[in-house]
């Protein structure tokens, strides 16, 4: 009897004693770094980082190599009457010099499309004034920050899930111990009643009832073992490790520190930071939409060689430098409509921020009230355990003296087991509620 009381009285401890959670802290840290969903979010963050680098690279010159080669025949021509212009002159010169040093030439017809012509050049473009590039870089940087915040939200939720799964596993583990102790006790009752029946001290009913109790506790024990296995599998799933991996258990003999109720702030919540970042992005989108009012100025430079028959010499080499200016004058109101859309999105995010802030404050309040209720339930469960232990000891003494029926002893025993199970549930419920408060006020430090 004393061994049974000791085994199931785990909850009778100093209610507010400090409790080390070294194993749980390590599990949370491991889970945040090893969970597959977190890894997926990290890949998205990496993608946003490269998008930011791409936006920054747009401010640098763009250099490309371009080349063309053309063959042409027929089509439009340019007629040059060089023969009509020069032949009379050449004829006069031949008469004056009494020679044929100045031959007659034909009129020329030159194709507009160059034949056997190549053009190879390095083409460089450098933006000098472009508001769109500035806003694009700002937006990409904020989107990168937004994804980091998104990872923080997921990690915080994952940390809560890991803790709750851990507490559920410990709850099931402790319940198994209670059922195992109860099983030892009912088996001892069965042995005693069988002996008494063989000595004609009790009737067969006591033996049958004892056997039924053994069967019932066995069934409850097996059910709780399945619950423990499911809790273990889910916990290991969150950590991304084999589902049957052993779990190191911390000793939680008392409820969490009730001072956690004093922290009701929500300004650390990543959800608010996310909305603030989204609002900043929307403001830049408004600026991007308004950038049509500003001119765009680009410079360009071509350095290359062009000529016929693939000849390269001092006459074929060239450079071409210039500036291009673009300014929007009329677009049918398209740009103004884009600005209005961006402004509507910005106003929507501002309204959503106020609403979410109230939601988060409500979540903290509800979590705090639920934690208070869990503490009250736990303290009530301790009183029930104490009363049930006294009642069971009294019934056991009376039964041994022959002043109480076995059914009365059995009732006292069931009350004690039920009270201990309820105390077990109530204890871990306080820790689960503490995890919910920690999630609501962003009290856990996420690395």
Automatic annotation (TrEMBL):
SUPFAM superfamilies according to UniProt: Outer membrane efflux proteins (OEP)
Stored InterPro entries: OMP_efflux, TolC-like
Superkingdom of the source species: Bacteria
Principal cellular location given in the protein's record: membrane
Subcellular location: Cell outer membrane
Keywords linked to the UniProt accession: Cell outer membrane, Membrane, Transmembrane, Transmembrane beta strand, Transport
Family: Belongs to the outer membrane factor (OMF) (TC 1.B.17) family.
UniProt protein name: TolC family protein
């Amino acid at each position: 009897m004393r061994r049974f009381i000791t085994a199931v009285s785990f909850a009778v401890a100093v209610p507010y004693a400090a409790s080390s959670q070294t194993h749980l802290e390590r599990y949370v840290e491991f889970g945040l770094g090893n969970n597959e969903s977190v890894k997926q979010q990290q890949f998205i963050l990496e993608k946003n980082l490269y998008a930011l680098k791409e936006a920054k690279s747009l401010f640098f010159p763009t250099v490309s190599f371009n080349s063309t080669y053309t063959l042409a025949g027929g089509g439009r021509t340019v007629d040059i009457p060089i023969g009509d212009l020069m032949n009379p002159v050449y004829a006069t010169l031949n008469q004056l010099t009494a020679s044929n040093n100045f031959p007659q030439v034909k009129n020329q017809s030159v194709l507009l499309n160059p034949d056997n012509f190549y053009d190879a050049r390095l083409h460089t473009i450098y933006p000098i004034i472009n508001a769109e590039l500035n806003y694009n870089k700002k937006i990409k940087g904020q989107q990168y920050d937004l994804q980091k915040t998104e990872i923080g939200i997921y990690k915080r939720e994952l940390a809560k899930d890991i803790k709750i799964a851990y507490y559920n596993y410990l709850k099931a583990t402790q319940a198994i111990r209670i059922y195992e102790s109860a099983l030892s006790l009912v088996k001892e009752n069965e042995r005693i009643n069988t002996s008494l029946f063989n000595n004609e001290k009790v009737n067969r009913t006591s033996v049958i009832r004892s056997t039924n109790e053994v069967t019932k506790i066995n069934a409850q024990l097996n059910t709780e073992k399945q619950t423990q296995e499911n809790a273990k599998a889910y916990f290991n799933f969150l950590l991304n490790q084999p589902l049957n991996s052993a779990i190191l258990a911390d000793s939680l003999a008392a409820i969490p520190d009730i001072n956690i109720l004093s922290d009701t702030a929500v300004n650390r919540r990543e959800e608010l930071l996310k909305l603030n970042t989204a609002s900043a992005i929307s403001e830049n989108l408004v600026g991007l939409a308004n950038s049509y009012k500003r001119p765009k100025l680009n410079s360009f430079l071509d350095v290359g060689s062009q000529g016929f028959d693939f000849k390269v010499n001092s006459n074929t080499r060239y450079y071409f430098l210039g500036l291009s200016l673009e300014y929007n004058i009329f677009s049918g109101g398209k740009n103004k409509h884009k600005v209005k859309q961006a402004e509507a999105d910005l106003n929507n995010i501002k309204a959503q921020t106020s609403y979410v802030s109230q939601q988060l404050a409500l979540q903290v309040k509800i979590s705090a009230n639920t934690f208070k209720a869990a503490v009250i339930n736990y303290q009530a469960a301790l009183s029930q355990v104490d009363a049930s232990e006294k009642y069971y000891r009294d019934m056991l003494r009376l039964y041994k003296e022959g002043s109480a029926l076995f059914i009365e002893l059995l009732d006292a025993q069931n009350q004690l087991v039920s009270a201990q199970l309820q105390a077990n549930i109530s204890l871990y419920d306080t820790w689960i509620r503490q995890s919910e408060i920690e999630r609501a006020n962003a009290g856990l430090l996420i690395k």
